[in-house]
Design goal:
Shape of chain B: flat
CATH architecture of chain B: Orthogonal Bundle
Number of strands of chain A: 13
Distance between the termini of chain B: 49 Å
CATH architecture of the largest domain in chain A: 3-Layer(aba) Sandwich
CATH superfamily of the largest domain in chain A: Periplasmic binding protein-like II
Largest sheet of chain B: none
Radius of gyration of chain B: 21 Å
Number of helices of chain B: 9
Oligomer: heterodimer
Number of strands of chain B: 0
CATH superfamily of chain B: MetI-like
Number of domains of chain B: 1
Number of helices of chain A: 10
Strand content of chain B: under 5%
Chain lengths: 282, 217
């Protein structure tokens, strides 16, 4: 039986390979055009392209309270990440209104950046070694830590209460999944398209706790007082601004902008406006 | 340009999702066929109440997005005290949704057999059941097979809706693979190939069956 299923799966593998070979033959013309389009772009730097265009196209979250949230009534997107985008537009283009926001999720932000749909990603994105292979990062612009959100009165009061029988909600593609799986081997993780979907599932009782960075969890707890953030953060999540790989001049321009914001006190103002306290200085 | 290491390295993930997609599709296929047939019979019943119930079901369900049907089972039912996991909620939503379309296909097939056939059968002494069995249904089935096989193919493709309720289907794992590896194009092309492994044979089988039934006429 085992042998047969192995044989079947290798037959299936062969089938998949041949079907996809066919598919890729059909699509190779399209792929070729876009590849050559990309190489012409690479000749001029992204920073020049931004200056020529006169607007900074920034990928931000639309579903994350405090960082990037679309107000359904006014249609405006607001949050810490959005204020950072405007401040950087002022630094790079001299006008803080020259920003075009595009919605990204944890799942779409790197593909959209690499496709050239956006100039940079300011979307609660943790700097990791794996991501550094795909994109370049600016200096840390926000220091967060992973924590847990539970319904008030839950038996879970911190990471130590999470066992292999606990069901954890998370967003697809988030680093928090690797962290919690390393801390609690065998823990059941349900992954959703975004934090709002994950939070809705938690509210419907489909799991025990939601995990991601505390900064995002505090936003959810503010949205629904029946939920609270428990325990101390159990990881360091340094947020960086992601930029297409190899665009060194843009990374430098962003880092200079960040340094200026921090030295003239504007960074502290934005931080206090959203997080409600002064940033911890290290 | 296709990154085959995605397929070979994540083959167990693809397989896990593929098997769940098959499972969800088979359950939903059987369920929606039974439910759809019942609704179709209600819609052509001589009792007004049954006709009305069938019509409300079909018009209500087929005119809303499947996403909402599935979210109802996943997020809505818990507030009524019934909690279903993502796979069950997704499969149930898929069943309820597809049944509306299947009911319409079956009803249209039965009703497109001319009234005279039924009248002739009844006047030559056949009962209602005999008329259905020997006269109406054999003719209706030829008309129903093409739209029905379309619905079954749609059902398999629609099963990808399970991903939004963490239903552990093929699409769910494809999403995770693409998030983990940042290789978007290849990941979804392979996922598409797995769907084709299911839908293409079904498509060809339906075509062959259609031809055979046409000959036997």
């Amino acid at each position: 039986m085992k042998k047969r299923s192995k044989k079947m799966s290798s037959a299936l593998l062969a089938g998949i390979v041949s079907v996809t070979a066919l598919l890729s033959a059909c699509t190779s013309t399209g792929g070729g055009t876009s590849a050559s389009g990309g190489s012409t772009d690479a000749a001029a730097s992204q920073l020049d392209a931004i200056k020529e265009r006169g607007t900074l196209v920034v990928g931000v979250k639309y579903d994350t309270k405090l960082f990037g949230l679309k107000d359904p009534a006014s249609g405006d997107v607001e949050g810490f990440d959005i204020d950072m985008a405007h401040a950087l537009a002022k630094s790079i283009l001299g006008d803080e209104s020259k920003v075009e926001l595009k919605e990204v999720t944890s799942k779409t932000r790197i593909p959209m950046l690499n496709n050239g749909d956006i100039d940079m990603v300011i979307a609660t994105m943790t700097i990791t070694d794996a991501r550094k292979k795909e994109v370049d990062f600016s200096d840390v612009y926000f220091q967060a830590g992973q924590s847990l959100l539970v319904k008030k009165g839950s038996s879970i009061t911190g990471i130590d209460d999470v066992t292999a029988d606990t069901t954890i909600m998370a967003a697809k593609g988030a680093t928090s999944i690797d962290n919690i799986e390393a801390k609690v081997p065998g823990v059941k993780v349900l992954q959703f398209d975004n934090y709002q979907d994950a939070f809705n599932a938690l509210k419907a009782g489909q799991g025990d706790a939601l995990t991601t960075d505390d900064a995002i969890l505090y936003g959810m707890a503010a949205q629904d007082p029946n939920y609270e953030v428990v325990g101390e953060p159990f990881s360091d999540e340094p947020y960086g601004i992601a930029i297409k790989k190899g665009e060194t001049t843009l990374v430098e321009a962003v880092n200079k902008g960040l340094a200026d914001l921090k030295s003239d006190g504007q960074y502290n103002e934005i931080y206090k406006k959203w997080i409600g306290k002064e940033p911890v200085t290290n | 340009m296709l990154d085959f290491s995605i397929l070979t390295e994540h083959f167990p993930d693809y397989m896990a999702g593929f098997l769940n997609t098959i499972k969800a599709s088979v359950f939903a296929l059987i369920g929606s066929f039974i439910l759809g047939t019942i609704i179709a019979v209600m819609r052509i019943s001589k009792y007004r109440v049954l006709r009305a119930v069938g019509a409300v079901y079909v018009e209500f369900i087929r005119n809303i997005p499947i996403l909402i049907v599935v979210l109802f089972f996943f997020l809505g039912l818990p507030s009524l005290g019934v909690r279903l996991d993502g796979f069950t909620a997704g499969t149930l939503g898929l069943t309820v949704y597809t049944a509306a379309f299947i009911a319409e296909a079956i009803r249209a097939g039965i009703q497109s057999v001319p009234q005279g056939q039924s009248e002739a059968a009844r006047s030559s002494g056949m009962s209602y059941m005999q008329t259905m069995q020997h006269v109406i249904l054999p003719q209706a089935i030829k008309l129903v097979i093409p739209p029905l096989s379309n619905q079954f193919i749609n059902l398999i493709k629609n099963s990808s809706v399970l991903t939004i309720v963490a239903g552990l289907d093929l699409m769910y794992f494809a999403d995770i693979i693409s998030s983990d590896t940042y290789v978007t194009f290849s990941t979804y092309i392979f996922a598409a190939a797995f769907y084709l492994v299911l839908t293409l044979p079904l498509s060809f089988a339906a075509l062959a069956l259609e031809k055979r039934l046409a000959r036997s006429a």
